[in-house]
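Q: Convert this sequence to structure tokens.
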Amino acid sequence: MKKGKGHNGTILFLLIFFITGAVGLNLEVSRSLFLIMVPWSLVLSYLFLVAYHRSSMNAKAILAFCIIAVLGFFVETAGVFTGHIFGSYEYGKTLGLSLFSVPLLIGTNWAMLAYAAHLMMERLKGSPVWKVLLGALMMTAYDFLMEPVAVALDMWQWKDGIIPLQNYIAWFVLSVIMLAMLQAMKLKYRNPIAIALFVIQALFFGIQHLILYIRP
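A:
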């Protein structure tokens, strides 16, 4: 990618893309089409993050986020089969191809969230412990916005339709583990679109979350 402000066009594209998705998912005439696009939106987000990644330690970064993706996937797998980590839930078909009843994109999603959270926290002053805890809290807040929307879009379903407090506790703990690993590895990188993408996705879920509560 070119240096300078060329990334602003990408951020604008992503903003329009997710706004269009938010509208399309709430119109009966287009809902089925936009549901098909949900996993592809995650793939697109991942590709943009990779394209704009800047680091002098690429091998270390690749290793770190591969570990996080694999960790996230297998913790989710254990969660689905046991019901003892996040609570009792199962995945729907919206997120696409699955392995062990868990969509393959789930690990990638954990890696993307940790990637953006770590980058944001590194911009702040404070101790590594403070950065890890604040970053984990931010990731958990993201999940709070996402959960009812994910259920409505059949990304996953909770037993008895109730999102348990256990889920948010597990999200926080797992986020702490991931971000602590990135801190321990002293991972440094730059990405001009990562924070904007995180905010855009959070706004997408926040708007959808609000619509669910005000819709008659």
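Strands lie at 89-91, 98-99, 102-103, 156-158.
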